Each structure stands twice: as C-alpha cells, then as structure tokens.
Amino acid sequence: MKKITFSIIIISFVFLGMSFRSSKKINIDGDTKENEKYIDSMMANALEKGFFPGAQIIVGTGDFNLISKNYGYHDYTKKQLVKSEDVFDLASMSKVLGATLVTMRLAGDGKIKLTDQVGQIVPMYKNTAISNLTLFELLTHTSGLTPSITFYQALLSTPDNSPLLSNQKSEQYPEPFDNMFVNKNIVYDSKYLSFQSKENWVQIYKNMWLNPEFYPSVYERIATANTNPRGKYLYSDLNLLLVKQMIETKTVKKLDQLTNEIYTELGISKIGYNPLKWTSIENVMPTEVDNFFRKDTIKGYVHDEAAAIFGGVSGNAGLFANAESIAVICKMLMNNGNYKGKQILKAKVVKEFTDSPLAKEGIYRGLGFDKRKPDEFFTKDDFGHTGFTGTFFFMNRNTNRFLIILTNRVNPTRTNRLMYKDDFSAKIWKQINKVY
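That's the Serine hydrolase sequence above. Prediction below.
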C-alpha cells in the first residue's frame, strides 16, 4: 500500500511539473502575442507618420527569439520591402558591438587593462595633454574630450572664403543639410581628396579617396580636445576613436579584423564594417541624402563623416548589421559571455562592463555600454546602446529580455526626429518588460 501511495505522489509531482512548465509557456506565448500586437500598432503609426521608411525588430530572451519581424520599405519610394537579410547602418551602436566587444576580449585575456593610459600605448600621444587619460575614462565618457570634431570640413572650402553653411536658404545656399543650407560653390582640397583611385590612398566613399597624410592633423586635433572637466560625464565620439587606436596598437591588428574574429566564433555573418565587401548593395538600407560632403544618397557606405574619414572602420561608428546577428550577441551577453556552450567573453568582464561603476557619482554609464538613470522606461539593470541613424538595442538579464530596433530614420534627412519625440523605442522596451 505504501509503495502504491508513493507512486501516486511521484506521478502527481510529475504532472504538476508538466503543468507548471506548460503554464509558464502559455504565459510567455500570451505575453508575446500581446507584445507583438503592441509593436505592430506602434510600427503602423510610425510608418504612417513618417518616423522612418523601414525597420527590423527582434524581441528575445537569453535562449531564443520571441518576435522577429520586418516593417516598411528601404525608402519612401516604397519599391523595396525590408527583408531579414537587409543590413542597417548601426551608427553609435558600433561603439559597443565593435570596439567595446574587442576591449572586453582583450581585458579578459589580460592583454589590456582599464588603467592603461593613452600615452603609454599610443606613442603619438605620449607628450600631449591627453597622455594620461585612461581606458576606463574613455569607455565611461569621463575623459573631458569635446563631443565631436568635424574633421571632414577641413577638406572643404569656398573660393571667396564665405561660410560652408548658412542658416538661411538663398541662391548661394540652396540645398539643405541638417537644419542648415549648403554653399553651392564648395571646393574640395585636391591635396587630400581625389575622385579617382590613387595608390595607398584610403577609399572613404564610392568615388572619394583620402590622402593618408591628412591623418596627422586629425590626431593633433584630438590631442588638444580635452577642453571639459575630467571625471565628469560627457559623451564623446573621440573617446572611442582613441579606444580603437589603443587596441590596434596593442594587438597590431585592425579593428575590423579583431571584430570579425569574434563574429566568426559566434557564427554570424551579416555584421561588419564596409558592407559592400560582404553583402550586395541591394541588401543595404539607404541613409541620408548628403548634399554637403558626398553629394549623394548614402547607401553601402557609413553615414557618420568621422567614420568615413577612417575608411569606414572606426571606434565611434561604421558597423552595419541585421537584427538577427545582433540578437546572437545579445544572447551571448545575457548568458555572461557564453553562447551555445562556448565562452566568448569572460563572465567577470561582462559583469564589469555592464555595471555602473560611477553610480555613486550620479553617472550611470557602463564601460562602453549605455545605461540610464532609472525612469519610467529604464531600470538600473538595463544596458545596451542607441545609434544616430535610428537604431536601438537593450538587454536586461533580470527580466530575461532583449530588444533590437533597427531603422533608417535619417533617410532622407537627419532632421527627422519624430521617433525620439514619441519615445518610440523606449515605449516598446517598457512594454516588453512590464509583465515583470
């Protein structure tokens, strides 16, 4: 009798366990359907109001994708639907998915330290004002470096020395650029720019090559750019330009080579710099109609002008990817650097970089990663990054959710900030986490 009773109890527990598991699955499915309905509604509204021409979105957990969808078209002609294999210009998401990932790998292998100083590693900065800036300061944006420098404008001039841009449209300034208008008489510096391929010159656009002799002037300007209080938070593209120089000098390898080593280990191929080297132009989303520098609709080349100057491979921008490739990286990070049983990054390094080491000073930034002061949309445990072109990815290991939204909101112009005024991405992030 006791054996029979014991067997009944065991069988009951087995059925209870099955019931709990299926109940959890039903909840996930229910949440997913509710979230998908919400996302579809948000996207329909965004496309109708012209937030962006097209988008990819993935919602997932540390183990699998829950929602993976494409919306809209490549541009407003509506001739080409967005497909899963299409790649978007990630803009500043490159800071995390490129230079920061490589830095995490090197830190885990003991090849670079957060206390390393710029001048110790990169000889050209040894006796400059930025010599003792640390890798930690660069990654947390507490270096004091000015937010950006428009290096490319030094390559442009006008015959009568009139301004390159005006805030008023006129016969001399007919074409728009951002919220300004472009001088119709702009001249390119033939010493440094060529519209034909030249030996050892760097291709910066499909019909533009840069004389590498221009780079010393770029580095000189960076070396005198720490014009703000050190130790205070100030987001700057220059920080990641320096991180790139530090890791390339340390490894004697180029950033694109270093990132590709990680991507290959993860088994992802729709991600990288200079996309026309690894995918067709038909699979690249267009960005801005550039009436100023490149005089073209940017497609297949990086939108960011600083990254363009460096041949499309930069610490601040330059990566292109589809959402599926980024989803793999999210799963790896959410599983403490492990993906499908392979330890890509050291767990302690992932934790260190995705924490907020300066929270006591009111700085919530991670190391490379964007983190936010808790508000109605974000918690202290969220980490990820956004991009100027209209891109967003965030993760939370506690809620076991990640969200990737890729758009090309800068097509045809960067003045379109409707998705930001609407808190578009933040609202979706809040929605997919709210059941917790």
